[in-house]
Amino acid sequence: MPKINFRAILPHFVAVIIFLLLIFAYFPELLDNKSLNMHDIEQHKGMSNELVDYRERTGEEAIWTNAMFGGMPGYLISVIYKGNLLASVGTVMKMGLPRPADYMFVMMLGIYVLLLSLKVRQPLAIIGAAAYAFSTYNLLSMEAGHMSKIDAMSWMPWVLAGVVIAFRGRWLAGGIFTAIALSLQVKASHFQITYYLAFIVLLFALFYMIEAIRTKTISGFIKPAAALLLAMVFGVLTNISALYTIYDYGKDSIRGKSELTITGKEDTGGLDPDYAFAYSYGVGESFSYMIPNVYGGASNIGLGEQKGALKNADDQYQQIMQQLPQYWSDTDTTGPFYAGALICFLCVVGFFFVKGPVKWAILASIIVGLLLSWGKNNMDFSVFLLNNLPGFNKFRSVKMALVITDFLIPLMAVLGLNEIINNPFVIKEKSKLFIASFILTGGLCLLFYVLPDMFFSFDFIQPQIVEQLTGMLKQNKFDDGGVTQWLQGLRDNLEIVRIDIFKAEALRAFFLITLGAVALFAYGRFKFSPIIITVIILVITVGDLFSVDKRYVNKKDFISRNKIAIPYEPGIPDEAVYSMELQADPSLKGKIDAYIAEAKKNSGSKSNGAAEEAKTRFRGLLANTDYRVLNLTTSTFNDAATSFYHKSVGGYSAAKLERYQEFIEYHLQKNIQELGRLFNSRPTDSTMKAGMQRLYALNMLNTKYIIYSQEGPPINNSAALGNAWFVNEIKMVKNANEEIQAMDASFNPKQTAIVDQRFSQQVSGVKLGGDASASIMLTSYAPNLLTYDYQSSFGQVAVFSEIYYAKGWHAYIDGSPAPHFRTNYILRGMIVPAGKHKIEFKFEPAIYYTTEKVGMASSGVLIIVALGSIVMWYRKRNQSEIKKAV
To answer: Per-residue pLDDT for 433 more than 90?
Structure first.
């Protein structure tokens, strides 16, 4: 049995300790039962609460939630895909660390392994890990709550390490390593990151192939290429359940193709350019990788936070300038995408000093990442890709392509540093290239400091802020000339302030680059210990990144973990809804009051168990309720707070159903505007009730409560139509255009059902109306199972206030399958026979259950192959040790 070489393992153990020390040095609050207050995580808590609570109570996956947008599949919200058996590998590697330390650790360890696979010295790999993990882009993403993105990014270096291992001769090990890493990367369920990772992998493969052709070793390229291709297949198959269900759902989401042709927009089956490129990176902003405040800083932090920045501004503008955002580009950001000044210098050094296909693959990938991220600032190229590059039109925020650059700049920097450490004489041998690297980075920073006006050729204030200030000035009786003069004065002063900020940052970057360059020059001149120069570079890099990161992510961003677990405490409107809904049962009312008191009492405690238990019990109490709430005190269709406690008409999702989005635009928005006019008319009770009757869209969605103030109870909408009702008339229409237009101010959903002619066979021959005593009632509710009892002397047409989605919802009458159809553009309809019967709607998407089995089988095969390879390697190594001993 071969002995364990503890001496060889020790440096890696030390690296792990350093990673943990760096993480907790930056996030000491994680040791005090706190966590980052992340906006998107709060939103995720709201949108996923129904699914999570159902899972906790039953141990099953609901797959569908009614908590947002009337109802939608939960594939992109909180469905757990259990088919990938490799998930436990990721869990083990995160070592039970608190979030986001767990993702950061995987990220650091991944870049460390990648650099070792590229034959970089072990201490230098630690620098690369620190530089990548603490780049400002990553910290800002964590602070925003984009944790699925960070999870996906953390596995990127692992995938690339497998690719490198395969092309460096160990094709079998590299293929297996890539398959496992890709499986975990895809499982993170941020497919836009996977999409950008594909660019990197393809470019690496391309340049390895070019190198093989150049050196006439193409036969040595085929095996690793084939192994990696098979690895990609397994990376996909192990996650086929998530991939295929989301792909299939995407056809019906806002990323799919609409049936409407009356919008006047060309429907390409993806996002339109305005939406896709709303978050684009400025070409000049790309310098923020080296100079953090090129564009000022963050859009959510005022200029007043920049100490001393306003000292040279005119007094009359200082007050308003303090409130203006630091960031002055035309999109929002929580901070710059900063890689480190010294890291950028070393990256350029690497491009000059490093040889081989890896250099060219990295350079090509960085260029691609920047071109993709510029979006609307490089419109012809971007629109061409949107129309021709497969999959590109499915993703919003092209700025996210900077994950490529964020990943590869520190990688190239360490490869360049490794060349110098391995051969100190290289600086002297290639002195001109070393000086050129300094001029292209440090020299450029100095040029920006000396001639900032040459760089700044833009307006220093966003158009939307100009518009707001113009309105404010006109309200204060400024004429047009006065407004123009005042705004010009503000612009002039902003130019002074913003240039001062930029110059200070440029000088700071120049200093850091010069410090690093001098240290490296001294190393090349005096040949002192590599450990000394490594420590110097590590200290400069970590100190630089920490100081910039802390401007945007610091102790003020942390709150107790209990607050994270239950981010939305019940307010007055919530309590009033519960009180009105359950007032018929005093015992339930008492339990609700007890829940609210318990949740509030435990909101500040270190243990969130009591509040979580109370929340679960509360969900059980409301398990049979299925009404909707319209919350006008939030951004109704861009906020999930309401969904935490209620089934919301609105919600928060970038992939809602296309039909529901169209229903919002054509009808719900009109009803909300009508509601606003009704409120402004100071209505009496009678006019209020009459006005509610006109809200056809809200009423057919069974919108029972309307929250219009956080300080008072909601409006109880008596016109809401309930969970189901019978109609007396069917209006057939030819297509989606006619279907959505047939609902107007005269439309009464209580009397009429609008049905597309494609469902004509299901409604032909039915007799309408006739039994005034007929009844239909929801008797049991679960997100994926709705049970109704009904009775009628005649066959009836029933409309259900539930969202129609053919890919999984099945209807049953007394246990036997029964057809149902779409009505009123988004709802479900059904022909029900005479008599007393039970109707059930079950969400049973076959593709989910089938693909889960495929994923389980694929991951099982991959695990067996991986374990078999390890056993074979171990036996071979053991035999080698025995031969040596003999």
So the answer is: yes
∠ CA 676-722-670, nearest 5°, is: 25
Inter-axis angle of helices 586-601 and 572-582, to 10 degrees? 160
pLDDT digits (tens, 9 = 90+) for 87-128: 888 889 888 898 889 999 999 999 999 999 999 999 999 999
pTM (2 decimals)?
0.84
Residue at token pair 């496992």? 180
CA distances from 66 to 51, 252, 580, 625, 829 (A): 9, 17, 21, 11, 17
Q: Is-contact 200 152, C-beta < 8 A?
A: no
**Is the CB of residue 789 less than 8 Å from the CB of residue 774?**
no
The helix/strand/coil state of 730 is strand
What is the reported pLDDT for 604? 44
Angle at 173 between CA 168 and CA 177, to 5 degrees: 105
Say if residues 433 and 223 touch (Cβ distance below 8 Å): no
- Work out the average pLDDT over 482-486: 74
Determine which helix (DSSP H) or strand (DSSP E) holds 136, and give its type and residue range.
helix 136-144
CA 886/CA 874 separation, integer angstroms: 18
The token pair at 750 is: 């209580």
Cβ atoms 525, 518 nearer than 8 A: no
The residues pairing with 827 across neighbouring beta strands, listed in sequence order, are: 803, 823
pLDDT of residue 877: 66
pLDDT in tens, 25-46: 999 988 888 888 777 777 878 8
pLDDT computed for residue 457 by the predictor? 56
Beta bridge pairs of residue 160 = none
How many alpha carbons lie under 13 Å from residue 358 in its C-beta half-sphere?
25
> Checking phi first, is residue 96 left (phi over 0); if not, alpha (psi -120 to 50) or beta?
left
Separation of alpha carbons 347 and 354, rounded Å: 10
pLDDT at 560: 75
**Cα distance between residue 630 and residue 647, in whole Å:** 9
Residue with token string 């920490």 = 546
DSSP string, 633-700: SS-GGG--HHHHHS-BSS---TT-BHHHHHHIIIIIHHHHHHHHHHHHT---HHHHHHHHHT-HHHHH
The model's pLDDT over 165-218, given as tens digits with 9 standing for 90+, comes to 999 989 999 999 999 999 999 998 888 899 999 999 999 999 999 999 998 888
What is the C-alpha to C-alpha distance for residues 61 and 784, in angstroms, rounded to an integer? 9
Cβ burial 581-613 (10 Å sphere, 16+ → b, else e):
bbeeeeeeeebbeebbebbeebbeeeebeebbe
Assigned token pair, 313: 């501004």
Residue 751 CB neighbours (<10 A): 13
| pLDDT tens-digit map of 682-715 | 888 888 888 889 999 999 999 999 988 888 888 8
The C-alpha atoms of residue 524 and residue 40 are separated, in whole angstroms, by 48
Q: Helices in 354-430 by DSSP H: which ranges?
A: 357-374, 379-388, 402-422, 426-429
At residue 832, the 3 state secondary structure works out as strand
d(Cα 146, Cα 279) in Å, to the nearest integer?
15
Q: Nearest 5°: phi and psi at 788? A: -125, 145
Residues in the chain, overall count? 886
pLDDT above 70: residue 494? yes
Nearest to 664 by CA among 265, 677, 653, 275: 653
Q: How far is CA 97 from the centre of its chain?
A: 21
Residue 106 contacts residue 93 (beta carbons within 8 Å): yes
Tell me the residue ranges of DSSP E strands in 185-232: none
Higher-confidence residue: 316 or 657?
657
Name the strands in the sheet holding 809-813, side by side, starting at the edge strand that comes first in the sequence: 775-782, 785-792, 835-843, 809-813, 816-818
